[in-house]
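The data are set out underneath:

___
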Amino acid sequence: MPANLTAAQTVEALIKLGTLITDKKGPTDWLAFLSSSDFQSIKDVVDQTAKDLDHNTIQATISTIIEKQQALLAKHGGKLVDLSTDELLQYADLGNLKLKLQGTQGANAGIAAFGGWLVNEAFPVLLQVAPVVIPLLL
């Protein structure tokens, strides 16, 4: 995976990493999973993928999300109330993603904290909003 990911690539990388970890982790507690042979079998891939998901990449993605929200508002004179239902849903999904991303320092926090955040908090939201937000972030 290249460095300097776009916002869409960041979301896709988070989903891929979340899928990989969740598939191997199963119902196991996160901290117990970190010391398991299942985690060791994917550790190199996790480390390689996570290295591009640092604080700067997450912050750049948040900035792009804010720009996309502002662009939606600008189409209607900055008035949220004038957005169509589709645009309101897009705006809300972008906002949900932004809130989740603001909850992490990315891989800079260490794989235990970052992976725990991804699996336990962000992954369900990513799966929910990805079909809407990825095309908006392209």
